[in-house]
Design brief:
The complex is a heterodimer of chains A (116) and B (107).
Chain A (H helix, E strand, L loop, with lengths): L2 E4 L3 E3 L5 E8 L8 E6 L5 E8 L4 E4 L7 E6 L4 E6 L8 E7 L6 E2 L3 E5 L2
Parallel strand pairs in A: 2-11
Antiparallel strand pairs in A: 1-3, 3-8, 4-5, 4-9, 5-6, 7-8, 9-10, 9-11
Chain B lengths: L3 E4 L2 E4 L5 E7 L7 E6 L6 E5 L3 E2 L7 E6 L2 E6 L9 E6 L6 E2 L3 E5 L1
Parallel strand pairs in B: 2-11
Antiparallel strand pairs in B: 1-3, 3-8, 4-5, 4-9, 5-6, 7-8, 9-10, 9-11
Classes of the chains: A mainly beta (116), B mainly beta (107).
C-alpha cells in the first residue's frame, strides 16, 4: 500500500525559496505521477504541478511557471518541489498526491509560512 | 485552462438527508473528473474518479454522475462523518483544476 510522507514545516523570508519533499513507500516514482497542490489558510485547493518521471514530463500551472521546479530521486523514492520568489501569498499547506489524474494517495501536508 | 464551477459553495443539511453537489466544466472533459472529501486539518481523500467510479472503502451512499459537462456527487442518507468540504477536480487537461469547494454543514 502506497504511503506518502512529507517533510516538515518551513518558515521562509519573502524573496527566498522553499523545497518540500514527498517520500513514497510501498510504490515507486517511476510507476506513477506526483501532483503538488496547496491550500492557503481558509481557502480551497489549488493545483500547482504534476510530474510524471517515467515520461520525464512536468506540467506546471501557468501562474507558477518560472517559480516551481520538481525533481525526482528514484533511489530515495522522493519527489522534491521547490518554489522560488516567495511572497506572503505563498503561505499555505502544500500537499503531494500519488496517482495518474486523480490523487489516490496523499501526503500529510507541509505548512510553509512566508514572513519577514 | 479548463474552469470548474462548483455549486453550492455551502450547504446545510441534516443527518439522513440526500444532498447533491455539482461541478460544471467550461468544456468537455470526457469523465476525467474526481471528487474529494476534506476534513479540517487533514489531507483530501479521493472518493470518486472517472466521474462515477467509487474508490475502495468509500461507502455506497456516495455516488458520482455526469450529464454533458455537468458532474454531480450525491450523498444518500447523510451520516455525521460526511460533514466536510468537498472538491471536484478535472484531469482531462494536462493543467488540472479544482472546483471552489462545497462546505457541507449540519443543520
Amino acid at each position: 500500500q502506497v504511503q506518502l510522507v512529507q517533510s516538515g514545516a518551513e518558515v521562509q523570508k519573502p524573496g527566498s525559496s522553499v523545497k518540500v519533499s514527498c517520500k513514497v513507500s510501498g510504490g515507486t516514482l517511476l510507476n506513477s505521477a506526483i501532483t503538488w497542490v496547496r491550500q492557503a489558510p481558509g481557502q480551497g485547493l489549488e493545483w500547482l504541478v504534476t510530474s510524471i518521471p517515467m515520461f520525464d514530463r512536468t506540467n506546471i500551472a501557468q501562474k507558477f511557471r518560472g517559480r516551481i521546479t520538481v525533481t525526482a530521486d528514484e533511489d530515495t523514492k522522493t519527489s522534491h518541489m521547490e518554489m522560488s520568489g516567495l511572497t506572503s501569498e505563498d503561505t499555505a499547506t502544500y500537499f503531494c498526491a500519488y496517482g495518474y489524474g486523480a490523487g489516490v494517495v496523499w501526503g500529510q501536508g507541509t505548512t510553509v509560512i512566508v514572513s519577514s | 485552462d479548463i474552469q470548474m464551477t462548483q455549486s453550492p459553495s455551502s450547504l446545510s443539511a441534516s443527518v439522513g438527508d440526500r444532498v447533491t453537489i455539482t461541478c460544471r466544466a467550461s468544456q468537455a472533459i470526457s469523465n476525467s473528473l474526481a471528487w474529494y472529501q476534506q476534513k479540517p486539518g487533514k489531507a483530501p481523500r479521493l472518493l470518486v474518479s472517472g466521474a462515477s467510479t467509487l474508490q475502495s472503502g468509500v461507502p455506497s451512499r456516495f455516488s458520482g454522475g455526469e450529464s454533458g459537462t455537468e458532474y454531480s456527487l450525491t450523498i444518500d442518507s447523510l451520516q455525521p462523518e460526511d460533514f466536510a468540504t468537498y472538491y471536484c477536480q478535472q484531469y482531462y487537461s494536462d493543467l488540472y483544476t479544482f472546483g471552489q469547494g462545497t462546505k457541507l454543514e449540519i443543520k
